[in-house]
Design a protein that fits this description.
This protein is of the alpha+beta class. 38% of the residues lie in helices and 21% in strands. The protein contains eight helices and eight strands, in the order αβββββαααβββαααα. Helix 2 runs parallel beside helix 4 and helix 3 packs antiparallel against helix 4. The N and C termini lie far apart (56 Å).
């Protein structure tokens, strides 16, 4: 192979490691989200051998700069430069779970090789914010609303998604199928819609209008957190067509049960 043909096979990109699955005796198949190329499935060959040059840097949630070689089925990682291992998440079960949750959302709501630098910056910034000690609950809820909007599933928070009436200060039901809240007159449009309290709706609107700066220091009850989390996970479940696992595992650990209990 000539030097020019070898060069043509290689490409580079900055990426966040979303998932890793062991393959064969020593390889690992990775899902990464890259700034330049979008979501990629790649293979790191012999990464699990003690002598591998690739092992350090390709951990879950790490931000890295990759050199990749085009392959027939999967592109191959040929070099790794570690940019940010997010070591602050180590041993912090709740922070790690929330950071994993936003990575899982990106994994499930994006398609292969569709570049979107806004998603990359949102993901990178979200993980860094959680690693820096910013309230992971607030970061996750902000991230969810922002990502839903970017990928085309924006949550309508201010008007009835069916009739367009401005929503008043009362409990309304959130319809994942229709993409927003229903007023009392339109509830029959989606019997599966989930009711949310006035305070839960206010929190989501505050996130939407003011971002993290307006919500991160707000002290909200555990009950309100659980209400919001159930609603957002339900919305995500509908659009990903599967249950998200990271926060379910966290809750099971906190409750001392198995995730399926």
């Amino acid at each position: 192979m000539t030097e020019s043909s070898r060069h043509d096979r290689l490409y580079r990109g900055e990426a966040i490691v979303l998932q890793g699955i062991d393959f064969k005796e020593a390889d690992r198949i990775l899902t990464v989200y890259s700034r330049e190329h979008g979501k990629l499935s790649v293979i790191a060959k012999a990464i699990r051998k003690p002598t591998s040059r690739l092992g350090f840097g390709l951990d879950h949630l790490s931000r890295v700069r990759l050199t990749l070689a085009h392959g027939r089925t999967l592109d191959t990682v040929t070099n790794v430069e570690l940019l940010d291992p997010h070591l602050e998440l180590s041993g912090q079960i709740e922070a790690y779970a929330y950071a994993s949750h936003i990575a899982e959302l990106v994994h499930r709501l994006t398609q292969e090789r569709q570049e979107n630098r806004t998603i990359y910056e949102l993901l990178s910034g979200g993980i860094r914010a959680i690693a820096d000690g910013i309230d992971p609950f607030a970061v996750a809820r902000y991230f969810e609303l922002a990502l839903f909007s970017i990928v085309g599933f924006r949550v309508e928070l201010y008007r009835c998604i069916n009739c367009g009436r401005e929503l008043q200060a009362s409990e309304h039901a959130l319809s994942a199928r229709l993409g927003g809240f229903l007023c009392p007159l339109c509830l029959a449009e989606d019997r599966a819609a989930v009711g949310l309290s006035v305070n839960a709706q206010k929190y989501l609107r505050l996130l939407d209008r003011g971002g993290l700066d307006q919500t991160v220091n707000r002290d909200i009850s555990i009950d309100l957190q659980r209400e919001l989390e159930r609603a957002m996970l339900g919305y995500a479940r509908f659009h990903t067509e599967r249950d998200l696992t990271c926060l379910a595992v966290l809750r099971s650990i906190q409750a001392g049960t198995r995730p399926e209990d």
